[in-house]
Design brief:
Elements lengths: L2 H15 L5 H5 L2 H20 L3 H24 L5 H15 L1 H4 L7 H16 L14 H14 L7 H20 L3 H21 L4 H18 L8
Helix pairs in contact: 1-4, 3-4, 8-10, 9-10
């Protein structure tokens, strides 16, 4: 970790939050910074997917500053220190990778993931298998995470043919709902189809959120390259 740079940022934060600091910064709370953190993280993801190292560097710095900002506010409130948060993360990673930091051996990746889930369950002391997936995740990303975790638990289709059959079934059910003009049911059936499509992509090694983002970029690039006359043909 670049300790010197982090300490410099922390020094800047101390000045911003100090008696002669910035009025806006001094009004902030971890809750008020949450939306800024989400926005900056999206900008970082966009820079990464654009393969632009200069933008990645800038956006990574912005995200890191906000993380330190939240940490500094928590520390001031007496909740925990930044060092405690980092130490907890380090201990967690060591604990979840016994095949790297201890002498554990796993027969395959599935066994490794099973141990990962077991460690997470012990850490969180949770009973619900999907409890660790944030409710606020974007829907496509959330669907991917749900399918990924369900697969580790064995709660999924046995093979790709089963997923294909489900996709075909859900497509027909959507068409039927559309045909009778039931918009609410059609929306639900279309959602079921998308949910199954996300799983099919996952099995092929594709993340739906990333794939759709790529499609959006291709569409915008095509529009800018070929002014539209109102048709995609």
């Amino acid at each position: 970790m670049p300790d010197h740079s982090s300490q410099r940022l922390l020094g800047i934060l101390e000045a911003l939050l100090g008696p002669k600091g910035c009025p806006w910064d001094k009004e902030q709370t971890p809750r008020s910074l949450a939306d800024y953190l989400v926005e900056e993280t999206h900008e970082l993801v966009e820079a990464i997917r654009s393969d632009n190292p200069e933008e990645v560097r800038e956006e990574l710095g912005d995200v890191w500053f906000l993380l330190l900002f939240v940490g500094a506010l928590m520390e001031r409130a007496g909740a925990f220190t930044i060092d405690e948060a980092l130490e907890q993360a380090a201990a967690k990673m060591v604990r979840r990778h016994p095949h790297v930091f201890a002498d554990a051996k796993f027969r395959d990746l599935d066994a490794l993931w099973a141990n990962w889930e077991k460690e997470k369950k012990k850490e969180k002391n949770t009973r619900a298998p999907f409890e660790g997936i944030p409710a606020s995740l974007p829907p496509l990303l959330k669907a991917y995470r749900l399918h990924s975790k369900a697969a580790r638990l064995g709660f999924t289709w046995q093979d790709e043919d089963g997923v294909r059959e489900q996709m075909d079934r859900k497509w027909r059910e959507w068409e039927q709902a559309e045909a009778v003009g039931d918009r609410e049911d059609a929306c639900a059936e279309f959602g079921d189809y998308l949910f199954t499509l996300v799983e099919f992509g996952r099995r092929k090694g594709h993340k739906a959120n990333e794939a759709l983002d790529l499609a959006n970029r291709k569409f915008l690039a095509r529009f800018e390259r070929e002014p539209s006359d109102g048709s995609l043909s």
